[in-house]
Write a structure and sequence with these properties.
The complex is a heterodimer of chains A (233) and B (220). With 233 residues, chain A is of the alpha/beta class. In chain A, 19% of the residues lie in helices and 26% in strands. In chain A, the strands form two sheets. In chain A, strands 1, 2, 3, 4, 8, 9, 10 and 11 form an eight-stranded mixed beta sheet that branches. A three-stranded antiparallel beta sheet of chain A has the order 5-7-6. Chain A starts with 10 loop residues before the first helix and ends in a 15-residue tail after the last strand. The chains are: A alpha/beta (233), B alpha/beta (220). At the A-B interface, helix 5 and helix 6 of A face helix 3 and helix 4 of B.
């Protein structure tokens, strides 16, 4: 790769370097804005003992759920799980360690990880099982718990558009955790629906500046809908 | 008569102020959106990153990239804003959301809330609930007053693991509207046809009953 051409053309190149025991941060909320092809590539690579950080763990047969099929995930850090039977089964049997983390704390852990902030205090979780064993400090008379940042060996991100500099734009609520994940990976890989020429993205409208991004790949997406709710005319 | 889920939503909706930002949880709180009075403007916050959530889409408007915190397909109203999850929880934790409505298994006289885990049953996670209860100044908790077996859910002390400590001030049940302060539940209103005695019998935590407890006013 010369200069600032971050575009790779195969998923093997996109995930090159992923090894057993690594930590992978994945963007997405439910099945919305998930890097579905990068996840499939992790399955193909058959790496194991992964720590996966993501708000949810997909569903049976789709999204991060596919990594459960061959027991590739050792530890899952998420705010809400249990949309898949396999997850439940592996959690109950103790094969899968689950660290439940409040959604806002999870987002902030990723943000902090990418922003060089090793830890932060939050009121979220104080007085609950989440606060147990964590350092507590009072500010203005209110107790807060210390939460540590998260960094990943890899961050896998789904976006709408990117240019070869790695400047990225997300679409609608598919943004969710993706920009935060993008900042927190030693290697950040973004898969997109559209590659555009430099200059096509208005600099003021870039959501994730290219400095955070190492690799960009053009993908095709199923974009499965978890709960299709409609009204009638 | 105990309130129906719809009537509970209707009563909560009366508390929504014109020009306010509101986060509605899953279940009864979601129904509140259907009863927001005409003529007032409200911005619904959905914690996956949408301020200005609209109605469900028509079939031909369905967009996989446009969902709410319950993972349902939705629309955005004119004037909406979309942002990432850290920004969304900055709004919540930073106290910028005017009203939060969420469900609970138990609340107690000190404003503690338990809503996310029942030991021995499958634990799915807290999602955004812990951030919401820690961040919001103004929370209305919607729940049934007692279990099917008649066990009170308004306690001296929550028995289940907490979602948040000392953060709930108002509770709407199917029987009553109550305020929590000074280590007690204060009865504000009762559901139409429900007696103060019934409410008292089904409230395990300390209950303060004023001389006059008005009936809730609900549209027919």
């Amino acid at each position: 790769m010369a200069g600032f051409n971050k575009v790779v053309t195969s998923y093997a190149d996109a995930m090159a370097g992923l090894k057993d025991g690594m930590t992978v941060i994945a963007g997405g909320f439910g099945l919305c804005g998930i890097p579905e092809n990068l996840i499939q590539e992790i399955k193909r690579l058959a790496v194991t003992d992964l720590t996966v950080v993501s708000n949810n763990c997909g569903v049976d047969g789709f999204g991060l759920g596919v990594l459960l099929e061959d027991r590739q995930i050792k530890t899952m850090i998420a705010s809400y799980v249990g949309e898949n039977a396999l997850f439940e089964q592996q959690m109950l049997s103790g094969e899968l360690e689950v660290i439940l983390t409040p959604q806002g704390t999870l987002a902030e852990k990723m943000r902090a990880g990418g922003a060089g902030i090793p830890a932060f205090f939050t009121a979220t979780g104080y007085g609950t099982p989440i606060g147990e064993g964590k350092e507590v400090r009072e500010f203005d008379g209110r107790p807060y718990i210390l939460e540590e940042a998260i960094k990943g060996d890899f961050a896998i991100v789904k976006a709408w558009k990117a240019d070869r500099y790695g400047n990225v734009v997300y679409r609608h609520t598919a943004r969710n955790f993706n920009p935060l994940a993008a900042t927190a990976g030693k290697i950040t890989v973004v898969e997109v629906e559209e590659l555009v020429e430099p200059g096509e993205l208005d600099p003021a409208d870039v959501h994730t500046p290219g400095i955070y991004v190492d690799r960009v790949i053009l993908g095709k997406f199923e974009k499965r809908i978890e709960k299709r709710t409609v009204r009638t005319r | 008569m105990a309130l129906t889920r719809e009537q509970m939503a209707q009563r909560v909706a009366q508390e929504i102020q014109d020009g306010s930002y509101v986060n509605l949880g899953i279940g009864i709180p979601t129904l509140v959106a259907n009863y927001i009075p005409d003529g007032i403007e409200v911005m619904l916050q959905s914690e996956n990153g949408l301020l200005g959530m609209g109605r469900y889409p028509y079939e031909d408007e369905v967009d996989a990239d446009m969902i709410n915190a319950g993972k349902e397909t939705v629309t955005a109203i004119d004037g909406a804003a979309i942002f990432d999850s850290a920004e969304s929880f900055a709004m919540i934790r930073g106290g910028h959301v005017d009203l939060t409505v969420l469900g609970a298994f138990e609340v107690d006289v000190n404003g503690n809330i338990a809503s996310w885990m029942i030991p021995g049953k499958l634990i799915k996670g807290m999602g955004g609930a812990m951030d919401l209860v820690a961040g919001a100044e103004n929370i209305i908790c919607t729940m049934t007053h007692a279990s099917k077996h008649g066990e009170s859910k308004l306690l001296s002390q929550c028995e289940l693991p907490l979602t948040g400590a000392g953060c709930i001030r108002r509770v709407l049940t199917d029987l009553a509207f109550l305020e929590i302060k000074d280590g007690a539940f204060h009865l504000l209103e009762r559901a139409p046809g429900v007696s103060v005695e019934d409410i008292s019998r089904l409230t395990a935590g300390k209950l303060i009953i004023p001389d006059h407890v008005p009936e809730m006013q609900l549209d027919a």
